[in-house]
Each structure stands twice: as structure tokens, then as C-alpha cells.
Amino acid sequence: MFSRCYSATTQGIEAYTVEIECHIENMSPSFAMVGLPDSAVRESKERVMAAMKNSGLPFDFSKRITINLAPADIRKEGSAFDLPIALGLLASTGGIDPDTLQQYLLLGELALDGAVRPIHGALNVALHARAIRKELPNLKGIILPLENAREAALVPELEVYGVSNLREAVGFLNGTAVVERSVVDIKSLFRDHVDQTLLDFADVKGQETVKRALEVAAAGGHNVIMIGSPGSGKSMLAKRFPSVMPPLTFDEALETTKIHSVSGILPAGVPMLTQRPFRSPHHTISDAALVGGGMSNIRPGEISLAHHGVLFLDELPEFQRNVLEVLRQPLEDGKVTISRVKLTVEYPANFMMLCAMNPCPCGNFGSSLHQCTCSEVMRSRYMSKISGPLLDRIDIHIEVPSVKIEELQKKVSGEASKSIRERVLQGREVQRERYETHNLKNPKQKIYKNADLSPMLIQQYCEIGEAGNELLKKAMTRMGHSARAYDRILKVARTIADLGGSANIEIPHLSEAIQYRSLDRQFWNA
After folding, report:
1. Are 123 and 261 in contact, with CB atoms under 8 Å apart?
2. Higher-confidence residue: 436 or 268?
3. Does residue 314 contact residue 359 with C-beta atoms inside 8 Å?
4. What is the distance between the alpha carbons of residues 61 and 169, in angstroms, rounded to a whole number?
5. Coil, strand or helix at 3
6. What's the rounded Cα separation, in Å, for the pair 40 and 297?
7. Where exactly are the structural domains of the chain?
8. CA–CA dist 446, 431 (Å, integer)
9. Same CATH fold, 201-524 and 2-184?
10. Peptide bond preceding 267: is omega within 30 degrees of 0, i.e. cis?
């Protein structure tokens, strides 16, 4: 007796098909599972046997049972194969029509009482199911846990059915139970989007220059470092930064949701993320937790969970230097590649890095209110924790001065996040229209914001004229900036021009972009 059904699992954020073959012989009882299963997959034998018995589904286990998971040369992980194994065993004895079974990808973890528990990566598998229809022309859709149904239903061309227990899945395949097809109104997810943050820039007194720099950063997706004494408002500003960020586009939301889904941290009842992620790891984090890693089970790190969002590193020099150095390549490439002996996984990591730090160990260097008690050697050692190559990848360097008591006593609030966000949205719309043609021609290398521009595209979209070239030449010579800094100044200037409604980069736009690169020399050469 033999049956075949199809499931899927993820490697990185991409899914691949797993063919599950069930073979039963009238020989001495045994239950063998082959195809490089890990411990969780091998243990499915016990879950499947108990679930079928407690669901009242008759099956004779006193035979030789062999389960093969193909392709056999790729390690299978996780508990999502429980449901397809149980259904495959029933199909091998005639309990389910084998042809009907092969019309669906099957996923789900079984509880001992037959309940179907949620899995990771439902959206990733659904997108894969849509892509393999040419290989499996009879494939109609996907059957998976009810809790994951709305997430998988984001793929509209696919029939998605969520089941709550094993008996319901069997009844649906046999036509004796009705299971409603899951449908999601994608437009309503964005239309009903509500900014859940209660923090607003109106709470911040003074610091107008810093707010302007953060507005530019949000509009163009630029990396920022804020340097200032303790209590000047760096963390307060950073926590309010999401309130001026634009909402995710559908393409961005799909990419971000895939990462959170495969990590198993997608909020319950939320099929798709519509708010940009804001990740704020503690400074004790390891390099593997930051960029992703693991031995056999490689998981995405904080930089991938912040994809299309913000990674906030507070007290930057307190992070271990080796942890900060692993950020250099992802900041440049927008992705991270994790290699092991038998496996290489690539995760997207196109994030904004927002950093905050003190200028010295005591925090008062350069302050007009307090005297610094650190020696020059102490300051040098403290600042040297941030390497030049990492600093070079940060577009905007801004000083956050101490707020004077007169500012704090004012009853007038600062500019609200809503009005700042409106300008940011206008700037993003200008960028969307500008890069629309490029994105249609290059769907695998889409540009969402000015920070994504490659050196070749910078020449195309960031022309500054003869006067601008002369100004930038003087600035580069005087400040000793690198070629990377040259490109990043042009991208920031392009964003400033977009916020000002200018089609061309003018001298004032370029001048503002240049002054955002001056603090590294002031503090690091102090």
C-alpha cells in the first residue's frame, strides 16, 4: 500500500516542496522515517499515532510503515509535517482519495488529541505554492492550521483552507465536512491601519535641528547617529521616530512579513505587518543574534527583523566591537549571507540604522552645562570603539545639545509628528514616482527610497551642476571624506531636495547634506 502527498518547509525565507511518500507492508511492526529528518520530525511518529487514535480514525499500526521525505539530501526540520504524514497514512489504506490529497500542500503540527497547531512560515509556503503550479498542475491550494489561514490567504490566486483538527481535515478531503475558504481583504489591512504608538514629537521641547535631521532621514531612509550628553533627549527622539515613518507599501509589507513569519514572531491574528518594524536590541547582544545564525537551524537576526524598518542601537559604544563590525557588509549590501558547512542562507536586511551615544565616558564633553571629567586618553579609547569604516556608512551625524531650562518651561509644544509625517510622505511619493520606471524594468532590484541608490544611479539622479561640484570638492578636501561619504552626501542632498519640492539639487540642499557629515571629525579628532 502506497500513497504520496505534498508539503513544504522553509530554508532561509524561501520555501521548497517536500514530497511525502507512505509505504505500508504486512510485515513485523515498525515505523521508519527517512529523508534526513531532525528530532522534531522523527518525533512526529508519536504525535501522529496518538492524534489518529484520539480522533477516532481507525488505523492498524501493527505493520511495517515507511515514511520518506524527498528530496532526501536536504535536512527536514520542524513539526509541520505531522498533518501530511497522518493524511498520507490514511490515504495509503483508502481512508482518503489519493488524487484529492495531491491537490493541496499540507502543513500542520498535531496535538495528541488531534488538534492542529499553528506553524511558522505560512506566507512563505503560500507564495511557493503559487509559484510551483507549473510543476504540479493539479495543485489547487493549501490546507494548514486555522490560525495561519489568513496569513496564507494574502496570496489571492490560491485556495486556502484552515482546519482546527485532524478529523476536520479528513472530512474536508472526503467531502463530508464543509471548510470555508479563507479570504483576506488586503486593501482593508492598510486602510484600517492605525498608528499604535502613543509617542509624539510634540512631547520634545526644542531640538529643532535634530528633528529636521530625523525628518530627512525618514524621507530618504538614511542612517543616523546622534551624539550628545546624557539627558539631552536622544532616546526620547529615537522612540518617537516611528511616528514620522511612512507606512509600508504592499511589496515592502510582504517581504517584511515573510521574515517575521518564518521567525515565528508574527503577532497572533495579524496576517500582515503594516507598520514598519522598530527593533531595539540591548547592548549585550551577540553578533549571531544581531545578524542571524545558528548551527543546523539558522534563524534571522535583528537586522533582518528590522528589514524595511529601523534598527535602534542605544549607547552605541557599549556594544562589543566585534558585534558592531558585522554590520558593515549588511549596511552596504542590504542583505546578509550566513554560511555553514552544508548550508548557506541569505536574509534581506535593508534597514535604517539609528544610533545614539555620548561623546565620552562621563557624557559631558562639549557640553555647555557641565564640565567633562574624562582625560584625552579616556575619550580617545571610548570613541575608538566605533570604527571609521562603520561610521563612514552612517549618512547623517547630528549633535544633540543639552536643552536649556527656558525651553523646558515653555508651555508651547513642539511640532507634532503628524505634520512632519505629511512632509515625509510627500518626499516618499516623489521618490516612488521617480523610480517607478526603474522598478518595472528591474523587479529583483527595486528601489524604495533614495538611500537604496547604487553608484551608477547616483550619477543619473543626483546631478549637482558645476557650482555644486566645486562646493563638494572643497568640502571633501577640507574634511577628508571618503568616496563612500561622497555618494552618501549626494543621496542625502537628493532627499533634502525632494522635501523642498525641487527637481534639481541646489546649493542649499547640498550645503545642508555636507554639514550632516561634520561631527565625525569634530568628536573623533578631538
Report:
1. yes
2. 436
3. no
4. 21
5. strand
6. 12
7. 2-184, 201-524
8. 12
9. no
10. no
End-to-end CA distance of the chain: 79
In 3D space, the residue among 126, 41, 124 whose CA is nearest the CA of residue 84 turns out to be: 41
421-to-215, 217, 417 alpha-carbon distances in Å: 8, 12, 6
DSSP at 165: B
Question: The whole model's pTM is what?
Answer: 0.89
At residue 162, does pLDDT exceed 60? yes
Query: Three cell numbers at 71?
Result: 528530496
Among the residues of 225-315, which ranges form H helices? Answer: 234-240, 250-263, 287-291, 302-305
Reduced to 3 states (helix: H, G, I; strand: E, B; else coil), residue 61 is coil
Of 154, 354, 350, nearest to 261 by C-alpha is: 154
Instruction: Tell me the per-residue pLDDT of 72-124, one tens digit each, with 9 for 90 and over.
Output: 888 888 889 999 999 999 999 888 999 999 999 999 999 999 999 999 999 99
Q: Is 508 helix (H, G, I), strand (E, B) or coil?
A: helix
Lowest-confidence segment of 96-110, 183-197, 248-262, 441-455 by average pLDDT: 183-197
What is the pLDDT averaged over residues 32-44? 91
DSSP letter, residue 401: P
- Helix, strand or coil for residue 378? helix
Distant-in-sequence, close-in-space partners of 422: CB < 8 Å, separation ≥ 6: none
Instruction: Identify whether 71 is preceded by a cis peptide bond (ω within 30 of 0).
Output: yes
Inter-residue contact 300 to 347 (CB < 8 Å): yes
Mean pLDDT over each residue of the chain, to the nearest integer = 89
Contact yes or no for 276/308 (Cβ under 8 A): yes
2-184 fold: Ribosomal Protein S5; domain 2 (3.30.230)
Q: 205: which 3 cell numbers? A: 521641547
Write down the CATH superfamily of domain 201-524.
P-loop containing nucleotide triphosphate hydrolases (3.40.50.300)
Query: What is the Cα–Cα distance from 158 to 146, expressed in whole angstroms?
Result: 16
pLDDT digits (tens, 9 = 90+) for 410-464: 776 778 899 999 999 999 999 999 998 888 888 878 888 999 998 899 999 999 9
